[in-house]
Amino acid sequence: MSDRKALELLQSADKAAQRRGWLSGPKYDEAGDLYEQAANQFKLARQMREAGEALLKAAEMSLKLSEPNDAAQRLVSASKCFKKSHPKEAVDALTQAVGLLTQRGSFRMAAGHQKEIAKLCEVDLADPGQAMAAYELAAEWYASEDATALANGCLLQVATLAAQLEDYARATGIFERIAEGSVDDQLTKWSVKDYFFKAALCRLAIPDDVGAAQALERYKDLDPGFASTRECLFAESIVADIRQGDLQAFTDHVAGYDKISQLDNWKTTLLLRIKRQIMEAGEDLT
Questions:
Q1: Can you tell which superkingdom this protein's organism belongs to (predicted)?
Q2: Ranges under pLDDT 70 in the chain
């Protein structure tokens, strides 16, 4: 019943949008409302793609009426309809909304939607490169609005993805920059040890044990409390294992750390790459 009603509303909306005559032209405001009503009926019928498409048409009517804010709102609503089953269409709708918002200087709001684009690209579209670019742009806009914490959150996602793509230099730079800016911040200083640890792992994955050792000393100078953390001691143990080519010691150190502080998939992946490097270095010596 809902989908039939939705189709009837669509037909009425199309007629209102395309009306031609000497006395009265298209009624875009009426058409926009009818497209929205059709979208709601499609939602009731659980036809989310059709709902999203109806909202895209509603957004077109808003643009014809020179109402970009309403158009952006309708585009965002359309993206929510597309999100679960048609992520590419969701990204396209959000991208249009972001364009309208930035034209009007609403960068804080645009940044939030840009971050959502990044999540869709990362998780649903499995496109880390596009996700990184989207997170970076969101961070830039957040920073322009003095939303430093939100900007850093996006940049941390860039660093995480960069390391997954083995762009360790880029990841290291971001982790270190955010850690250095967080040392004296009462709200974020507790995360510093994790940022420094991730930066060290990235350096070791390059591989660059010399650079990692030097970096660890610099981290301890920046944050004296870091020296006694489990993360610092573990990283220093790994540096020693790499220099000695001691695979067993490396394995033991990893197991010991994981027993107390469970390693997530990201850290485990980097440690496996480091382990492979130790193994390959040992093979080269035989």
A1: Eukaryota
A2: 1-2, 20-25, 283-286
Residue with tokens 């040392």: 183
Does 255 reside within a domain? yes
**HSE on the CB side for 133, CA within 13 Å?**
5
Q: Which residues make Cβ contacts (< 8 Å) with residue 108, sequence separation at least 6?
A: 141, 142, 145, 147
Rounded (5°) CA angle 114-118-120: 115
Residue 159, domain member (yes or no)? no
Burial 108-130 (b: 16+ CB within 10 A, else e): ebbbbbbbbbbbbbbebbebbeb
* Residue 79 confidence (pLDDT): 97
Contacts of 4 (CB under 8 A, 6+ apart): none
Residues of the domain holding 118? 107-150
Overall residue count recorded for the chain in this entry: 286
Of 125, 112, 122, the closest CA to residue 82 belongs to: 125
- Taking each helix axis from N to C end, the angle separating 148-164 and 192-205, rounded to the nearest 10 degrees, works out to 30
Residues 281 and 209 in one domain: yes
In this prediction the pTM is 0.89
CB-CB contact of 230 with 257 (8 Å): yes
